[in-house]
Amino acid sequence: MYVYFIKGTFLRLYYPCQASENPQLPDWVPCREYFNGLADFMKMNRALSERIFNYLFGNHFWLLSAEPFENVSEPCHFLCHFEMWLKHRRCCHAMDIYVCLFALGSCKIPAAWNASFKPDGKYPVIIFSHGLGAFRTLYSAICVELASQGFIVAAVEHRDESASATFYFREHAEPGTKKHPSCGIAKPVSDNLEEVWMYYRPLKPSEIEFPLRNKQVKQRADECIRALDILFDINSGKSVENVLQCDFDLSTMENSMDLCRIAIMGHSFGGATVIECLCKDVKLKCGVALDTWMFPLDEEIFPGVKQPIFFINSEKFQWIGNIIRMKKLDSAIFPRKMITIKGTVHQSFPDFTFLTGNWIGRLMKLKGEIDPHIALDLSNKATLAFLQRHLNMDRDFNQWNALIDGKDVNLIPGTNITIPQSSI
C-alpha cells in the first residue's frame, strides 16, 4: 500500500512474470477477517460460516499443479469441485501493495507470489473494481487470465464500506502490544502500526439507499484513479513505498507500462465504478462493465462518458430498469456494445462460481445453467477482443471479434430483457 492510513491505496497487482521453480501461491482468501466479513455480508453466524467456508473452500482445496506453466493446454485441477481452466496462459504473478498475506487454509490462486517481473516491452494496464460485498482477491480467474495475456492488472480493494472486509493501519501509541495479529507472511514496515478492520456497512432502518451508494461510487472512482496515479509513479521510476514488508522490487517495473493504453473493468457495483471513472478521467481509454448495477450512478454524468463501453451481462440478474439506464449511455458517436451470456447468474463472474459443485452452487446462486468455464472463457475472450480494438493493440485478440457482437451459440446480442417501446 502507498500510505498506510484509510485514505491510502490498497490493491493487488497482477503482472507477467519470469518462470520459476516451486513458486509460492497466494491464498484466495487472505485471512480470517475476510471470512468473517463475507459471513456478515451474507447475514450468517460467523462461527457457522467459518465451518461452511472451510468445508467448501478450505484446506481440502489445494492446487495439484503448482507451476505457472507457459502455454498450458490442459486445466490445472483443484481438489473437489474447483477446476479453473488456464489454457494458453503465460506466466503470471500476483502481489499485494499493502496486503497481509498468510495461510488460512484457503484455495490457492494459480499465480506466483512476488515472482520476478518479466520485461517485454510495454504492457497495457487495467484497473479492476470489485462488486458489493467482495474484495480484491475474489476475481482472480479474470485478473490472472488478463495478466497472462500481457496486461498489468491492478485490482483495487475499496474502503467505502462496500467491501465485505478490508483494513488499513494506524499508529499505535503503546509499545510492546500486538500490533498486527492477522499478519503472517507479510508485516508492516513499521512496528508502530496496528490493523484497523472495516466491514461492510448495511443500510440502516428506513435509510434511503441512493445517497449512500452514490457517495460510495464516487469514492470508488477516486480510489481507482489514485491506484492509476501510483502506477504512473512506478512507471516513471519514482520511489513508491509498500507499507508492508515485501521482497518484490517495484523499480523493476520502471518504464514497463504503456500508459497510453489504460482500461477500467469491474463487476456489479464495480461496473458502476467503471462508468463513474470514465467520466472523471480521460486517461482511461475504454471500459468493460460486467453485469453492472446502474443504481448508484447519477444519470447527469452519462453525457460526459465519451470512451467506448462494453457491457457483458448475465442472463438471470438484469431487469428492465437497469437495462434502460444502460441504454441511456447509447451514443451514435462513441462505441457502446452489449452482450448477454446465456445460462449465467450474477455470481458467474467472481471466483465463487468455480468453488462449489453444481447443486450447492445453484442453491447458493453461485452457478448458472452454463458450465462456468465456458461462461468465463467467453467473457474473457470478448473482453480481450474489445480491448485490442479500443486500445489499438497489435495482438491476435481480434480472432474473437465476433463475440463482441454476441455471435456465439452461448451469447445473446444485446440483452435478453424485453424493454417496452414506451421506455425507449
Automatic annotation (TrEMBL):
GO molecular-function terms, A-Z: 1-alkyl-2-acetylglycerophosphocholine esterase activity
Broad enzyme group: hydrolase
Catalytic activity: a 1-O-alkyl-2-acetyl-sn-glycero-3-phosphocholine + H2O = a 1-O-alkyl-sn-glycero-3-phosphocholine + acetate + H(+)
Protein name as catalogued: Platelet-activating factor acetylhydrolase
Pfam families hit by this protein: PAF-AH_p_II (PF03403)
EC assignment: 3.1.1.47
SUPFAM superfamilies for the chain: alpha/beta-Hydrolases
Organism: Sinocyclocheilus grahami (Dianchi golden-line fish)
Keywords carried by this UniProt record: Hydrolase, Lipid degradation, Lipid metabolism
Active site (UniProt): 268 (nucleophile), 291 (charge relay system), 346 (charge relay system)
Gene expressing this chain: LOC107601536
InterPro entries documented for this protein: AB_hydrolase_fold, PAF_acetylhydro_eukaryote
One Gene Ontology biological process: lipid catabolic process
